[in-house]
Amino acid sequence: MNPLNELIQARLTQGPVPAADVMALGLYHPEHGYYRRTKGPWGFEGKDYYTALDLGPLLGQTLALRLEAAWERLGRPGRFTALEPGAGRGWLGRDVLNAVSGPFAEALVYVHRDDSPAARYAAEQALAPFLTANRARFAAESEPLDPFVGAVFSNELFDALPAQPWRWEGECWTREVLTDRGPEWQAADPGEAGAWFASQSDGLEPKDGSVWCAGLPELVQELVAPLQAGLFLAVDYGEPADRLLAKGADLRRFKAHSVDGKWHEDLGEADLTADVDFTRLATLLQSHGLTDLTHMELSKWVRTHAPLDLWGADWMAMPAPERKARTENLLQLTLPGMLGSRFRVLEGWRR
Ligand SMILES: C[S@@+](CC[C@H](N)C(=O)[O-])C[C@H]1O[C@@H](n2cnc3c(N)ncnc32)[C@H](O)[C@@H]1O
């Protein structure tokens, strides 16, 4: 039997387990959690899901331009640290490092932060030339970070944090729990989450609901604290708070490239994700003094910041297979209904 299913069965003998606790166990159990296993869950073949990085380098290339703009705005410091929490295989860092040149490239040091052993192994390969040249390094999640000037960026970090689904039933809130009969919605006091949801809606209708990530404030605090000045940028699944409430957000399970709501099955062997509440993320960042906060669909962010005319001209000089791959990468990131319309990009500035 799957060791995490055994663990959860033992816990169920003491009563229902909130969905967020099941998600925490499935993803981060120190030995059997999906993100603590030694074998990687990424990529197209024989894996569970792909991210924007599997589609090609355009996300990294656009990000490289945003980082360079931040470096300019900071007055071109001699050292620009770019910290990536939840860095996974290090592909986004690699694509950024491949895209930069000149004095900005000399100033940029990329820091990969992700305790997943499979991620670390894959990142050692992806970042090898940059590690050797001291243009990239690893930082354990427990390593206290010295203050730095530069940027904190992430792709699909916040959607991998344990989150609790809540639903308004007209007279009371219910939360999703696992019982020995299977998943159920049970009445409970949402505390802080209830006050937040109520403040983000003109009037809740029965079945409205959202997900509440209890660990978000602590992680935001941890990531923002060492950033003395510069850019905070997060790319993630999610929407503003009012839209999540109206759609009744819940947890999703990704297994072998199919997605469903069976968050309690195959624990440790399937990825679990929750939509990110971008309104709350922006509010938390603002409470730490970040300014200029904006968030928009990834497709719009790419169209706003990528020099598509220039890139188009460069691609014309590439061999046909590469040209086709770049075009597909662009379409995936910008066409309605594709990945770029399901993701958002948040940017904020630390003075
Ligand atoms: C969905 S994966 C995304 C990986 C990568 N960014 C990508 O796009 O392929 C989420 C990653 O976040 C990591 N993670 C979760 N909590 C973290 C934290 N507090 N600090 C750093 N990494 C974390 C997990 O180990 C996992 O590798």
Question: In a few lines, what is going on in this structure?
Answer:
This protein is α/β, with parallel strands linked by helices and 351 residues long.
Please render the helix and strand layout as text.
Layout: H1 3-12, E1 17-18, H2 19-28, H3 58-73, E2 80-85, H4 91-99, H5 102-107, E3 108-113, H6 117-126, H7 128-132, E4 136-138, E5 148-155, E6 164-168, E7 173-179, E8 182-187, H8 192-199, E9 209-212, H9 216-224, E10 227-239, H10 241-247, E11 251-255, E12 258-260, E13 271-274, E14 276-277, H11 278-287, E15 291-297, H12 298-305, H13 308-316, H14 320-334, H15 339-342, E16 343-350
Parallel strand pairs: 2-3, 2-5, 3-4, 5-10, 10-14
Antiparallel strand pairs: 1-7, 6-7, 6-9, 7-8, 10-16, 11-12, 11-13, 15-16
The structure holds S-adenosylmethionine.
The site of S-adenosylmethionine has 19 residues, from loops.
Key attributes of the depicted protein:
Rossmann fold; single chain; alpha/beta
Notes on the structure:
This protein has a single domain (52-161, 214-350), classed as 3-Layer(aba) Sandwich (Rossmann fold). The protein contains 15 helices and 16 strands. The protein has helices at residues 3-12, 19-28, 58-73, 91-99, 102-107, 117-126, 128-132, 192-199, 216-224, 241-247, 278-287, 298-305, 308-316, 320-334, 339-342; strands spanning 17-18, 80-85, 108-113, 136-138, 148-155, 164-168, 173-179, 182-187, 209-212, 227-239, 251-255, 258-260, 271-274, 276-277, 291-297, 343-350. Helix 3 crosses helix 4. The chain is globular. The protein binds S-adenosylmethionine. The site of S-adenosylmethionine has 19 residues, from loops. S-adenosylmethionine (SAM) is lined by residues 35, 42, 51, 53, 85-89, 113-114, 116, 119, 141, 155-157, 160, 219.
